[in-house]
Design brief:
Number of strands: 6
Oligomer: single chain
Shape: extended
Order of helices and strands: HEHHHHHHHHHHHEHEEEHEH
Radius of gyration: 27 Å
Strand order of the largest sheet: 2-5-4-3
């Protein structure tokens, strides 16, 4: 799949819908049972990345996890159908667009270089059809309604590209149907999976997330069962480390041993130079009050307990005004487990997240159980190992170097947020 097609698919299926439970009077009947055979699963994984396929080809547990994740997506999607979600006009339009894109992509893949390019004349001819113009305008309206603060006036050049991409998808779909590609099992499976991902995501946001919200009582009960989240024990540990730092032990060594800040721990707690307004208020106030060589008292913030050592101070001119900057190290000690993928979380936030994850897992398990007679997914399937050159091309390695396959991506779409520097706002 080329980058343009990926962007178009993201634009088509990535509309975020507002969270809120909508009560439907429509009682939608179940569609035909979903039975994914071993052969179906093998077909589905061919759309995964070469690295993911390499992992699935060699790891039994990865294949079982893949199947379980798919079973959850399809089961939740069936619950969404019972609530009438796929029959809402804006969701139905998404489903139709997904079908168009998948068939068009399959045509491009089958035709290869013979697929041809879309000309301005092709675009103009397509949108002379009032139905196609209306479809485009409804797509844009759905995107704007769902993202009022993001999708506003679309620049002319961008609109031209959107029209071209939609024309390409529609024309590719027509050619694919002419060739009978829409009846191919792998295309049918891909359409089903992409549509299930969208409607299950809507159902999770609208129905399941509100059900998993943790109450203060549940959070307190969780902390009581997990003393490692108790602030009193954490403070006692931080006070002991502070005592050792003030007794002359190497601050950088203590940071590497005790700090849970993933952004500075391996650098001996070094935060580099920063000015005012870059750190959380409690940290900033303490850091700028120190003199070079001084170590602070315990500084408590939403991240935990900080021990700060000031290395240097300087004043620079910025925009014609003097600006004070400091170079500091810190040791961050917080309750619970370190978070290697982002800033540490307060004990209550960790407890709340754990409670909500447990509740969510229980709800999903119940849905899967409820749908077990309707949704069956084979977890014993084969995955052909991708050619070594595909793995090399993906990772940009020189010919002859075959990388170790990383864990496969989940069938469910997952976003990855940027990691802010812990201690900063």
């Amino acid at each position: 799949m080329n980058s343009t097609t990926k962007a178009w698919i993201a634009a088509g299926v990535g509309i975020v819908f507002s969270i809120g439970l909508i009560v439907w009077q429509v009682k939608a009947s179940h569609a035909a049972p979903i039975n994914l055979s071993s052969d179906d699963m093998t077909r589905l994984v061919t759309d995964e990345s070469p690295q993911a396929r390499a992992r699935l080809a060699t790891d039994d547990k990865a294949r079982k996890d893949y199947a379980e994740n798919l079973r959850e997506i399809l089961s939740v999607a069936e619950e969404a159908r019972a609530k009438g979600i796929p029959y809402r006009p804006e969701v139905k339009r998404q489903m139709d667009l997904i079908r168009t894109i998948v068939i068009s992509r399959s045509y491009d893949k089958a035709a290869g270089p013979n697929a041809g390019q879309i000309t301005d004349a092709d675009v103009e001819a397509l949108f002379k059809d009032p139905a196609q113009e209306e479809r485009l305008q409804m797509f844009l309206k759905d995107a704007q309604d769902a993202n009022p603060g993001v999708v506003q006036q679309i620049p002319e050049e961008q609109m031209k590209e959107i029209r071209r991409q939609m024309a390409k998808a529609v024309i590719g779909e027509r050619k694919g149907i002419e060739q009978g590609l829409d009846k191919h099992r792998d295309v049918e499976l891909n359409i089903m999976l992409q549509q299930a991902r969208v409607i299950s995501s809507i159902y999770v946001n609208e129905v399941l997330i509100p059900q998993t919200k943790a109450s203060d009582a549940e959070v307190s009960a969780y902390i009581a069962k997990h003393p490692e989240l108790d602030d009193k024990q954490t403070r006692a540990k931080a006070e002991e480390v502070l005592k050792r730092a003030r007794a002359g032990e190497d601050f950088a060594a203590l940071a590497k041993e005790f700090s849970i800040d993933p952004g500075s721990k391996d650098k001996g707690g070094d935060l580099g130079w920063f000015g005012r307004g870059q750190m959380v208020p409690e940290f900033e106030k303490a850091a700028f009050a120190l003199q070079p060589g001084q170590i602070s008292d315990l500084v408590e913030s939403s991240f935990g307990f900080h021990i700060i050592k000031l290395e240097e101070k300087k004043t620079e001119t910025k925009d014609g005004k003097p600006e004070e900057q400091v170079h500091a190290r810190h040791i961050l000690i917080a309750a619970g487990a370190p978070n290697p993928f982002g800033p540490p979380k307060a004990p209550k936030d960790q407890a709340r997240e754990a409670v909500e994850q447990e509740k969510g897992k229980a709800i999903i398990e119940e849905i899967v159980k409820r749908q077990s007679d309707h949704v069956t997914v084979a977890d014993n399937f084969s995955v052909p190992m991708p050619p070594p050159q595909q793995l090399q091309q993906q990772q940009g390695l020189p010919p002859g170097m075959v990388p170790e396959a990383p864990p496969t991506s989940s069938p469910a779409p997952k976003g990855k947020a940027p990691v802010p520097k812990p201690g900063k706002k």
